[in-house]
Design a protein that fits this description.
The structure is a single chain. This protein has about 400 residues and is an alpha/beta fold. It has 14 helices and 15 strands. Helix 7 packs across helix 13 and helix 10 crosses helix 11. The longest helix is centred in the N-terminal third of the chain and has 17 residues. The model has no long low-confidence stretch (mean pLDDT about 95).
């Protein structure tokens, strides 16, 4: 594997509060959340983050009818990323384009819905749709992008729980450096709000957030936090070698200079601060950086009582009382977008390279003493002048940990 520099050149996203980076950044800087209540089968009305992008912008009604919500999110984000990067697929060899999409889970939505529909026909399987198999295979979100765009290179999804968005980007870096592809479309997507099973599972674990105002249920680090807000969303980047990007005069959001992934190997659900800290240190080592070099740390914190505390322990272990490093959280705005979280939360912080602001963590009325962190930005955005390096953390069930470090391009 060579050491060629890898950069982010295009971005497409959909979040509960925006469908493009400009609007997303505006919401994050101005404290604008958008979580609503949705009707969940068997469970009633629950808070959730719902995206309002136009699926017909890039797909027709037949494609939507036969496809999946995750696939539609993927197509929208991929098309927007290519447009943003000014890449025209008809002008390049698409057999050298890879698609790496992180997912938390896939197929639950379609299976639940079809079993419910079948129950209306006394479970006569002749009413089971012939589209079910391609809808539910694990590579569906990436494959849907591949089919719609006519891309002939490798495509697959990466199941890394809630670290999957970061994992998609890490895979892109590795495949570019291995010379397997010349362009990667990478990040993560989630359709989780459309399955009652994930809501029921988190509720029975005591980890599903609840409250009177859906916009205030996701409250990482707050004494009153009681669980996550489940959200859908997506973010995909175009990822290229620096030389290729410069050759075509591309706009560059930043350079991926380090990453780390490891596993707790201690519990299926409860995180491990020591392993999380090791993951962060691995990313720093690969980037040849010290903790004090990091300007912004975007936390994974999901608003669960134990998860937030453990992550804060890991952050304190690595960053101590660094005066230079500022810390924020994006889930307080949009809830937990699962497989999309790593990529989407990174996207929301990248404009700091240009505007010099750290977006805040919102919904903190009383900071939990166990979650006190040096330079945790609360309530209002903070201008810190020059921002050169951002570290994005994402952790997930079965103990999967990830960290990605992006640097403002210096040539």
């Amino acid at each position: 594997m060579n050491a060629e520099r890898i950069v982010l050149t295009g971005m497409g996203l959909t979040a509960p509060n925006a469908n493009n980076l400009t609007d997303f950044r505006h919401c994050l800087l101005h404290g604008i959340s958008h979580v609503q209540e949705v009707e969940v089968r068997h469970m009633g009305r629950l808070p959730a983050g719902v995206c309002n992008f136009d699926p017909l912008k890039y797909q027709n009604k037949k494609e939507l009818r036969n496809g999946t919500r995750a696939g539609s999110i993927g197509v929208f984000c991929a098309q927007e990323a290519l447009l943003d990067a000014d890449i025209r697929l008809e002008e390049i060899d698409t057999s050298r384009v890879g698609i790496y999409v992180g997912v938390t889970e896939h197929g639950n939505v379609e299976t639940e819905n079809e079993i419910f529909n079948l129950s209306q026909f006394n479970y006569d399987v002749k009413f089971w749709p012939h589209h079910h198999n391609p809808r539910t295979i694990a590579n569906n979100p990436a494959g849907t992008i591949n089919l719609k765009l006519g891309i002939r290179g490798p495509h697959y999804t990466i199941g890394a729980a809630c670290a999957a968005g970061n994992a998609g980007l890490i895979q892109a870096v590795q495949m570019l450096r291995l010379d397997e592809v010349d362009l990667a479309i990478a990040g993560g997507v989630s359709e989780s709000i459309h399955t009652f099973g994930i809501f029921a599972g988190f509720r029975n674990q005591g980890a599903l957030g609840h409250g009177d105002d859906p916009n205030r249920v996701s409250r990482p680090f707050d004494c009153g936090r009681n669980g996550i807000v489940i959200s859908e969303g997506g973010c995909l980047f175009t990822v290229e070698r620096l030389g290729d990007a410069q050759k075509r005069g591309a706009k560059i959001y930043g350079e991926i200079v380090g990453y780390g992934m490891n596993t707790d190997a201690t519990d299926a659900v409860l995180p491990n601060a020591e392993r999380q800290a090791q993951c962060i240190r691995l990313a720093l080592k690969r980037a040849n950086l010290q903790p004090t070099d990091i300007d912004i740390v975007n936390t994974h914190a999901t608003s669960t009582p134990m998860g937030d505390v453990v992550e804060c322990q890991a952050i304190r272990e690595v960053f101590g009382n660094s005066e230079k490093t500022y810390i924020n959280n994006t889930k307080s705005f949009i809830g937990h977008t699962m497989g999309a979280a790593g990529a989407l939360e990174l996207a929301g912080n990248l404009p700091a390279f240009d505007d010099g602001y750290v977006h805040p963590t919102i919904n903190i009325d009383e900071l939990d003493p166990q979650c006190i962190l040096k330079n945790l930005v609360i309530g209002e955005a903070k201008s810190i002048g020059k921002v050169k390096i951002i570290l994005n953390m994402s952790f997930g069930m079965l103990g999967t940990n990830s960290a990605v470090i992006v640097k403002k391009l210096e040539t």
